[in-house]
Structure formats: structure tokens, C-alpha cells
Amino acid sequence: MIKRIEIESFCQATEDEKKILEALKNLTEKEFQKKTVHGHYGNPIKIYRTEITKTREINDFLKIFDKIDKASLRDIERRIDEKGKLYLRLNKQSLYRGNFVLDDSGDVHIVIKMVSYPLKKEKVIEDAKKILGY
Fold first, then answer.
1. CATH of the domain at 106
2. What are phi and psi of 68, to 5 degrees?
3. What is the Cβ-side half-sphere exposure of residue 26, based on CA atoms within 13 angstroms?
């Protein structure tokens, strides 16, 4: 079972903010909160973040896994921590084009908080594989 999904991405000063938001809308229609911070050289960096907690919205989000190459989920064990969190990263440019590409250095960060009783990593891995269709 999934308790919540957190999505976060950054928009550098050199990037088109509208395109970043368009890419994120490929994941969810949920509103993203914006926070502006400044980089080492004073450049503005916008951080977009949202949290999905409603069952319907979670189920809608999970549909993206129908479009992800299942082979990219083969290392799912190393993406899950002892607290039941599954960490994923998507490539922002691919996401803008409507392609869902998992990658280790992707700039769209997704954390899926899994609930399992009792909370054991092995059980979370098993549940995550079922939920993600792997």
C-alpha cells in the first residue's frame, strides 16, 4: 500500500519554467508549490514540489508505470530504504516529451512511501513490485 508520493524538481535560471511545469503535468494534475532559492553565484533556482496522498490521485499517478520500461525497474531493491521509501528519478527532458525514463541522475525526484505491516524491506520490495507491475 502507498501512503504518499512526493515529487520534486528544480528549474535553473537557464531553463524555461513553462516547459518544466508542462513536464511535471505529465506526472500529475496536482498543483506544484514553488519555492525560489539562490545558487552559489546568486542565480535563482526554483524548486517545484507536490505531495500526492489521495487514493484516486495515487492510482492515477501509478499509471505512468505502464509506460516505463520494466527492465529499468530491475534494480528496485537498491531504490528502497529501510523506512519503506522507494526513490526514483526521471529525466526531465524526456518527461517533457511525454516519455517516462528512469535514470540515476534524473532531475525529477520521486519518493513513494510504502506502508507494510510489519515494516520489513523484503515485504516492501515485494509490494512495490506488485504495485509497479514488475
1. 3.30.1440.10
2. -95, 135
3. 21
Taking a C-beta distance cutoff of 8 angstroms, is the pair 106, 113 a contact? no
How does residue 66 score in pLDDT terms, banded at 50, 70 and 90?
confident
DSSP designation for 38: E
Q: What angle do CA 13, 110, 70 make, to 5 degrees?
A: 120
- SS3 state of residue 74: coil
Cα(90)–Cα(109) distance, integer angstroms: 7
Question: Is-above-0.85 flag for pTM?
Answer: yes
**How many structural domains does the chain have?**
1
**Whether the Cβ atoms of residue 12 and residue 124 lie closer than 8 Å to each other:** no
Q: What are phi and psi of 121, to 5 degrees?
A: -55, -40
Domain extent for 70? 2-132
The SS3 call for residue 85 is strand
